[in-house]
Amino acid sequence: MKEPLLRVRDLKTYFVTERGRGTARAVDGVSFDLYPGETLGIVGESGCGKTVTSLSILRLIPEPPGHIRPGSFIEFEGRNLLTLSPPELRAVRGNRIAMIFQEPMTSLNPVFTVGDQIAEAAIVHQRLSRRAARARALEMLRLVGIPDPEARLDDYPHQLSGGICQRVMIAMALVCHPQVLIADEPTTALDVTIQAQILELLERLQAELGMAIMLITHDLGIVAGSADRVVVMYAGQVVETAPTPELFTRAQHPYTEGLMASVPRLDRPPAARLHSIPGNVPAATDWPSGCRFHPRCPYAWDKCRAEEPPLLETGGAGHTARCWLVAEPQRRMRRS
Amino acid sequence: MTAWLVRRCAAAIAIVFAVVTLTFLLIHLAPGTPFVPSDERVLDPAVVDGLRRQFGLDRPLGVQYVRYVVALLHGDPGYSFSLRRPIGEVLATTVPNTLLLSGAALAIDFLLGAAIGLYQAARARHRADVVLGNATLFLYSVPTFWLGLVLVLVFGQHLAWFPVGGDRNPVLYPSLSLLGRLGDRAWHLALPALTLGLVGAGGTARFQRAALLEVAGQDFIRTARAKGLHERRIWLVHTLRNALLPLITLFGLALPFLLTGAVLIETVFSWPGMGKLAADAIFTRDYPVVTAAALLASVMVVLGSLVADVLYSVADPRIRLGKGGARA
Amino acid sequence: MSAPLVDVRNLVKHYPGERAWLGLGRPRRVVRAVDGVSFAITPGQTLGLVGESGCGKSTVGRTILRLQEPTAGQVVIDGREVFTLGARELRALRRRMQIVFQDPYSSLNPRMTVRQTLREPLAIHRLAAGAGADAKVAALLEEVGLDSRLARSYPHELSGGQRQRVGIARALSVEPAFLVCDEPVSALDVSVQAQVLNLLMDLQQQRRLTYLFIAHDLAVVKHIAEQVAVMYLGKIVELAPAAELYLAPRHPYTRSLLSAVPVPDPAAQKQRIVLTGDVPSPASPPPGCPFHPRCPHPKKNQRCRTEVPALRAVVPGQLAACHFAEEPM
Amino acid sequence: TRPSTCRGDYCGTLVFAAAGQPDILLPPVSVQGLARDVYQQIFLKLADIGPSMNTLGDHDFQPQLSQRWEWETPTRLVFHLDPRARWQDGPPVTAADVAFTFQAYTDSQVHAESRPLLGGIVSVTARDSLTAVFAYRERYPEMFYAAVYHMYILPRHLLDTVPRPRWATAAFGRVPVGDGPYRFVSWTPGQSVELGADSTFFLGRPHIRRLIWQFVGDQQAAITQLVAGQGDALEFLGPLDNLRRVQQVPQLATYPYKSSAYGYMLFNVAAPLFSDRAVRRALVLALDRDRMNQSVWAGQAKVPPGPMPQLWSVWDPAIRSLPYDTAAAARLLAQRGWRAVGGGGSARTRGGQKLAFELLVPTTSAVRRQYARLIQAQLLTVGVDVKLVEIEPNVMQDRLAKGNFEAAILSYQADPSPTAGVTQHWGRGAPGNFGHYANPAFQRALEAAGHGANRPEEAARAWREAFSILNDDAPAAWLYAPNLVAAVHRRVADVQVRPDSWWALVRTWRIPADRLIDRDRVER
Amino acid sequence: MTPRHWAVLLALLAAAAIGALGLRAGTAGSDAARRFFRHPTAAFAVGVLLFFVLIAVCAPLVAPYDPSAQLEIVQLQNRPPSWMHPLGTDLYSRDLLSRLVFGARVSLAVGTLAMLVAVSLGAVVGLLAGYFHRWMDGVLMRLVDVGLAVPRIFLLLIAVSLWSQLPLAILVLTIGLTGWFATSRLVRAEVLSRRELAYVDAARALGAPPARVILRHVLPNAVAPLIVSAALGIGSVMLLEASLSFLGIGVAPPTPSWGNMIADGKEQIATAPWTTLSPGLAIVLVVMALNAVGDALRDALDPRREAT
Ligand SMILES: Nc1ncnc2c1ncn2[C@@H]1O[C@H](COP(=O)(O)OP(=O)(O)OP(=O)(O)O)[C@@H](O)[C@H]1O
Ligand SMILES: Nc1ncnc2c1ncn2[C@@H]1O[C@H](COP(=O)(O)OP(=O)(O)OP(=O)(O)O)[C@@H](O)[C@H]1O
Ligand SMILES: [Mg+2]
Ligand SMILES: [Mg+2]
Question: What is the CATH number of the domain that holds B107?
């Protein structure tokens, strides 16, 4: 196997909430690897720390209230991103690692033209002249398949639809040909038909440019269709990692299992009732002790309440799960 | 855009007309009489009556109003009672002075205010921010005229760095070179403009700081940061440019505020402007001047907000192209 | 089949653009949010209304309940014609029809506790007061699966799913027969979404409710609706029983919509029909078939550009508005 | 770098700090005092009052435009104009101008303030170009004063084309052309008026080359201007505080002068409360006017024995007037049924009605405002509740004229002539008799004094009698007759301040060549 | 000034400090209070306001003299601060501290009442215009345009000149009546944005009549900006009252207000600066405190302000 491009180890990002209710441990010891050229899907429910993880990689966490705990480690090209000086960090941001966000409309500056915004990164990182940068911007618009790119160059974001805006975001992120593209729920705000267009585009671009994509989503369908490997997060932790086919056939963690079962599906006849995971996602300020999923877990026993499981190898290649069931599979049998 | 402008202008004219009517009626309903000597003398009521007749004040109010409006439409705002000269002439000397004062104050207000606001926002919640925050709050809370009185006392009388009043040196001015004249005017302008400008800058800085911080929390600033931009560029280009939009709105609202301040500051600094003229006219019941001043003030205010709107639509592309301009 | 509880005929809703002359003059440039929509819902059944963002789904729901005045059309609910009612009769009819909103954050008054929220309809319609009202509130909370201790909470203290349940309880408090559910689960996480969907289905069973279920997620609609209407740019382009529609969609739009939904099964990845372009603005709809600029149908021709296809029965019970509904793609 | 070329005896520039603005520089139609300060430098009278300020007869008057005059008959006065007199645009000043001026002053369409004073003159005719003849109806002591004091001779050739009803706004009044020591240079409304010396002036070239009135907001601003060295002269410093402020400034000299002003609290006799003479007397008795004088003027003023400025020759401390006696005041009030309830500090009542009245005072006068508040506090101690109504002079004037007031603090800038002054304000039905005071005895005494011919001791007795009657009736409480102080820059020599018209003698002031400062030397 | 007065003054100072700190401690549990007191100056500002309110309420206890008593019109005129007269005396030999203390009553009352008039009128107009839209909106907002087109001081001077003698109630009323324009716009904007919210629709769907919708659902949620603008409004009214006094129209003498204290002292500003300094500083302090509180309230009442 190749060397990982990006290695995240024991990432802890906490927020000091002023509510006097302690610290929100939004990301609490997350580790995973991103390999060159792959698409890594990160799934999980709202509030489980997906966005905070991705922001932490580029150190975009607002400080205060947030801070990345010492001991966290994000290796990229042999350096720890978390200890880079500001100029070094800027040289990575937008240049080696780029990011696109969930809300394309609000993530673009409303008072600058699309062309200017795309060209900006090229001017800053590659010291292109204005004209060259503009040419590059045009090229990027073409690359992301925007019709009539010359005319769009001088448009403002509000003149564009959500789908086009997301394409512009992608063009902006890719303008310096980064190694890594972090896409934080790039299609959640879009309609299905547009979502399909964007996913298709990302696939094509990855094939053409050979970058690694970290695709964050809460939609298992998207992961199934687009990701090579999947990281499932729950309550600020990684609860399961596996290659995509493996995950969908042999999910080990009860949370992953429950998640899959509760999705209404187009490809199967409707059941009378949907499966549902009882309860709610707990608040980041007080995760349950022991296994964080135990209050909602149908299999939980004493050990789960008392002791937090580590990520355990399940036997499948690159398949790990944070669940005592991996160690004691018989208990799953007994319940089901 | 033209249609919009035409509509705005029509509305503006209607507003100005309403203001004139309102002022005319109110000031004529107020008790008191024009033509009273400002020194301690008692005027023969017969003389007053004669003057009233001469200026048409013996007619019923309705007749006076109609006459006034008709004359106004013919471009004749009448004669000032207390200055005994055509109002056009009176305004021609006072209005430029007020514009000069408000203009200078506006410049101080917005340049200084915006700069302080930017500095504060970029250092939000640091010491400098807290200190400046209190300073701007102080300026914002100070009665303008009181600050003016204090400044006159300190810088005008005791230190004698600035003149204590007036808009020019009446002795030297006629013999000065152009440059000398400009210098003289600037020197006289300094204290009143600073007083008015500083008080305004207090408010503007606070507003600007809030606006910048609001923008700083938006998604697209995070995008800019993710692009690897320098913090300076993020503040000066991405944040500031967006935060200027609310500032433009404030700019449109600043004019009435400045005119209000001008009434007081012109009094404190004996600045021969429209504000003082108008206040004096109200006190001396110089009806035509009051109405003319109200007319002009409302024109200025309406124009100010019009300019602000136009500026806004120039600065904000979302408005520039009109609503529903989205092209797919 | 019994007579429909809700009968919508040729519903039209146009939003006027901005008005000239100080807001008093003639409006300019209308938005044709809903442009001639007809359907009927049998008592105790669910009609799913799907379509992309901005196609007019919410407007249909809101106009039927007369939260907005219609531009034209007729709606009969429970035998009464909604659009001709006076204020008093309308208020009475409001007990029969209710709405559940999408956004769990804005649909509850942040300054009212759950109890106050739920007591309000009881007070408006004088259904219960005092201890009776409290008992009713407790019963409602129980019915939607909430702990009655939550009655004292404010909305911001509740999770999204809990809020949505309170919203449902509020709608149920006046014991309506007909419920418009405007994307009630779109904002919820999958695990919670399942809980709420189950709840809605249970309630329908227990109370014999009739639903107009608005959603953009075809999978969700498939799960809950007996009938499905697909909207595009203010018009219904396909209307059919759920089973038929999902099995054999007739309109090219429905087909591409279905193909675009990602399926959580890496093995079952099928061929996506990726549409080009975006949904046009309802302020300037294209002439002819509203879908023609994006239509992937191989037979697309000049007729599509000029002639508006009527919504017609392609096979019995399955209506589609396409000139080539019979042809395979 | 400034041009500073003027040297010698005729340089001088004076800046007068002026709280106010002139209305129009056309003598008969102007109503503002400041306008007179300015136009009296531009226009001449036939003759001017002498330093004694005596208004009786003609012997204390000094030639001005006329070289000399004579009485052809007891009721015909002939003026011989100075042949050197020229209008500033060239033509000589002629008797036709005098006749024209008289017509203008007496024209009902011009509304000259002094028109009533000219009532005794039947006609003015030009006998030849330098001889003007005044014909009177009858003889009276101030007949010469009436002819010359208020009438500034106007240029017929410039004004006879202006229709009389338009004089009030005549353009001439904005760029006047006269025959006096100074010619008009410029006037910017709201800013300043500038006059320049007429070097060919026939009575002698003025030493001060430029006169500039700079308009400032109020008295306080004027003093600040003076103290800051931007002004040269101010005729009136106001209360004690200001005097102290000015006296600390080395470059300023102060010039006390007898003022022509006096102040008083007027009761409206037509108001129910003040129709009662005893109440009026009680209120006057209750006021410690000496102490108020100390407080406001630091003793610089005197409490007048009647409605008179210190300037008048009829001033006589022996005139009978009411003393300060709160006990007597309280007794009087009690007698009239006004009972004290509670201690001091609350108003007396009668039949459930409070002993209270409104006292009008103009916002613009610091001195009168100060008096009003002192009065308010002092009267409260005898159980009278004074409601201060501080209003703009324009409203006050209106209410006075309409009789819509109970009491007011007035201040009067008097003519040098007591006859005109007293009659105008206390004569029955006189236009200035706002308080509606009327007493036949007083009226008789007044007439006797006015017609006292040229026998001074008889006149003085008549005046004393009249004022004593007035004081007994207490239609007003006389508050102050100040000794005013003017401040003028020390470099100015030969400063004379005239009580009736401060700057009337400016043309005789001078700045010695060795004391010239920058602003004197500036060449226009 | 006896020891008793000093004691009362210090006691009130302590009470204000304790009150402010106590308030902060007492409300520590609530989110809004926490957001409020997060502002560095909020507690101090609350203390200042409390102090002045206490002083105003207990004026007769704090003031060593009758505020309009002329103690000795010759000897005690314009005395600089001393132990007997901690803030000095004025031209009329009145004790400035006593005047300041009683002036607090008037100034705060005028500020509060005029603001109440302005804010309630603005709220009503804004609600009507915002909720009923169409012609009502058009008419009312044009009215507001006219009101905003004349500088307020100008409008006030004219309005005030209608009375030759200005009763306090009229002063309050005119200040209020000329001050609601901006508020009504604010409320209208707020209503317009709330009008479309789902919970308002829900109430309508439940059959709630317009009055109920406005009063229970729209108004309470539009009230936060209203409270903030009220806090700021008191300050601006106080400044306005001072300005009017400066121009010679304001609270009638001898009743002290901070504005007419400055106006009374302005002629002595060169020779007895303390006569204008203390009321001037009092105004500045209170207006600063009100602004600080307004700012803090803005955060406190808006849960979205969590992060900033
Ligand atoms: N600025 C912040 N201040 C305080 N807490 C924060 C902040 N940002 C995030 N959090 C907390 O961190 C936790 C994780 O948030 P995050 O945005 O990473 O979730 P997510 O998985 O991206 O969810 P979603 O699907 O809703 O985007 C949340 O519980 C949130 O409350
Ligand atoms: N009050 C309004 N005034 C003007 N246009 C409106 C108004 N409300 C909605 N519209 C327009 O009407 C069209 C249909 O809106 P509607 O909310 O019904 O769509 P929708 O299908 O519910 O969309 P979504 O999935 O985003 O909720 C949109 O183009 C929208 O912009
Ligand atoms: Mg997220
Ligand atoms: Mg919708």
Answer: 1.10.3720.10
